[in-house]
Amino acid sequence: MTTMTDASVREFKMPDVGEGLTEAEILKWYVQPGDKVTDGQVVCEVETAKAAVELPIPYDGVVRELHFPEGTTVDVGTPIIAVDVTGGAPAEEAQAPVEKAAEEKPAAKETRQEGRKPVLVGYGVAESSTRRRPRKAPAAAAEETVSVVQGDLNGHGKQARPLAKPPVRKLAKDLGVDLATVRPSGPDGIITREDVQAAVASAPAPEAPAVPVAPAPVEAPAPVVTYDSGRETRIPVKGVRKATAQAMVGSAFTAPHVTEFVTVDVTRTMKLVEELKQDKDFEGLRVNPLLLIAKALLVAIKRNPDINASWDEANQEIVRKHYVNLGIAAATPRGLIVPNIKDAHDKTLPQLAEALGELVATAREGRTSPAAMQGGTVTITNVGVFGVDTGTPILNPGESAILAVGAIKLQPWVHKGKVKPRQVTTLALSFDHRLVDGELGSKVLADVAAILEQPKRLITWA
């Protein structure tokens, strides 16, 4: 890697995309030396230990050099691309057309000579540091702030749109961050990239074992090394697979797992799935057994809320959650990830179907954001899609329970006193025995099974 010293060249460094991680692998470059780039344009895709993320460039110019090839693991804070901004000022200093028109006026010309603050397109011109409007007295300013807040709460005022540049809005969208919840640190209350990243970093994250500091990255991707004429292949462990391995080891040897099993007749549930596929309320939505299993688990959690909790080792407390962020384990080419549906307990069945469809599609495309994998409370893993009858799932770190769903098969079953072919599956519930005893775990598993056997309980128990 070469270091640029030309004042017209800007170095874009590998950012921490809000996960608190130390490195990321460059998966793909979308630009090459000589290409023009604009503020907010995605220039590359990188993979962290949690997800693949697209990185937008923060200024205009022409690509001078890519410092690392695809497949290279780079430390956060290391320059990865050099951009020549000659002929096009950086985006932070660029002026909106409305400002240029304003500058034709004498007063604006004087302001330009004295210096200007960075301008946020769409929110008008910021006053210069030497020509400011008189500030309000502290009491008046506080009074106005209280008035605005009260207006928002009582419905008599309109909540101001958070101030942020388009690239920052895109970053927030990619990371699943609501700008209204971000504390701004930029001039005039503008939200910066750092504010968005800090908001993600401060979000509650699953407990995980300490990760040793990785050695300094090399400028070439770690190769797949084959020994003994093809008899042995060694594959570097990194990215999602590395994080998953560390998390699972930490979970297995930290939380005392207990797993219970139940085999259940789901024939009526399968009939309901077929009926819902024809329902106009589910038009365009993916309806499958997983949808009703997820809803059954949510109802079981509502009936047994103590299962939806976590163990806080540092404070020696059990943290009961009054919301359900339902995790769905998804196998991807990069490894196992567990994105979750935020506030799944508040969703109707069609809304849950839509959220499940989006979650699965995003995971398959490798576009799951880090924020989508944080804050899960309970998880479902559907091993049945592989034809497996059941398993003993390991808890997602920071959660108290995980439900494994086995393959649904036509089997002989005693139904109404006679042996008949019925659709049958096996469920397995693993839970953290520090905060979930056998009675509670059994009640939750039994409730899920009862709902799947008689899905009308989705109505009577909801």
Structure description:
The chain is of the alpha+beta class. It is built from eleven helices and 23 strands.
Shape: elongated
Q: Percentage of helical residues?
A: 25-40%
- Coarse structural class: alpha+beta
Mean pLDDT: 77
Compute the CA-based radius of gyration. 27 Å
Whole-Å distance between the termini? 60 Å
Number of helices: 11
Strand content: 15-25%
Count of strand segments: 23
Question: Which residue ranges are poorly predicted, with pLDDT under 50 across at least 5 consecutive positions?
Answer: 87-159, 205-229
What can be said about the biggest beta sheet? Answer: 7 strands, mixed
Give the assembly state of these chains. Answer: single chain
Write the layout of secondary structure elements.
Blueprint: E1 9-13, E2 23-29, E3 36-37, E4 42-47, E5 52-56, E6 61-66, E7 73-75, E8 79-84, H1 97-102, H2 106-114, H3 138-154, E9 163-164, H4 166-175, E10 190-191, H5 193-201, E11 225-227, E12 232-234, H6 239-252, E13 257-265, H7 267-277, H8 289-303, E14 309-312, E15 317-320, E16 326-328, E17 330-332, E18 335-337, E19 340-341, H9 349-364, E20 378-382, E21 401-405, E22 409-415, E23 418-432, H10 438-453, H11 457-460
